[in-house]
Design goal:
The chain is an alpha/beta fold. Helix content is about 30%, strand content about 25%. The strands form 2 sheets. The chain has an 8-stranded mixed sheet with strand order 1-4-5-3-2-6-7-8, with helices on both faces.
Amino acid sequence: MKIDLTETTSSKINAALVQARRDIGTPAIGMVLTLVIVTDEENAYDALKSANDASHEHPSRIVVVVKRVSRSPRSRRDARLDAEVRVGADAGSGETVVLRLHGELVDHAQSVVLPLLLPDAPVVVWWPEGAPADLAGDPLGALGQRRITDTYSSEHPIEALGGRAEAYAPGDTDLSWTRITPWRSMLAAALDQQCLSVISATVEGEDENPSCELLAMWLADRLGVPVHRALSGGPGLTAVRLETKDGSIVLDRADGALATLCMPGQPDRAVALKRRDTAELLAEELRRLDPDSTYEASLKFGVARLEATPPAPAGKAAPAKDAPAKEAPASAGDAAPAPKPAAKPAAKKAPAK
């Protein structure tokens, strides 16, 4: 069921929700949270579709905030709220309210959203694109216990990661971090099976891919070893190599669907590691509403500390920034003899008095 409301108010929207539930015969509310989506008209459809798919796992009231840009000075002064209420089959497993804000109301979206939040239920705010620099300081972000962004959609994703680290507040998270959950689980399980000490690591993936940087920062923070970033043709994250004294632990995914795990002393095995869509990523983030301390530590490790070793093409190790041009011989037997001091030969040639 869909109900269109033009030039309406929050109280009229709440009344329409109650009436719609009665009309379809489901007056009881079985929703567990409120998901606020802040987006524009261009991305509203895709974001709402992903949220509806995720609502099958997390029944919720979805409030979509679409800020309509006014072109003329007069329209910018006129505040107007249009809404669309959806319940039943048109709203996944919960309820959906699409708000279109016009004029001065764009700068006061929180006053419209606040009366529509479910009582005594957590609030999650999601920006599919165009997230503010300070999520917790944003008026809409301040309403949520969790705030979800996606730096992959930014024009400069790596710079966006630095901004997220500077303005981090407990409850912030990013879908670029959610994308590497299967990678982190697989690598942690591999190290649990192999009692080996990792001495270095390499992460291969596309350039300007924040998931690759986050995985590299996670490894560097948790293992305390040098982690190099190598470039590949993708798609996305393609391989991780953990170097140990007994050999390499390699997780390689060349096609974006099936990966190969190689460990010393064990046969290679194929593991499912497909690239997930936005609905799956969103559903995973809605499973936890507490601050993610692991994400915080990895994010604050800093991309600049990884850039001490410049990125290299896949298959070529990146030399350390402070490495000398020529390395010393590996064994003492191959070492070149030390040159004699210049003062001694000069003393032998001098005639005796």
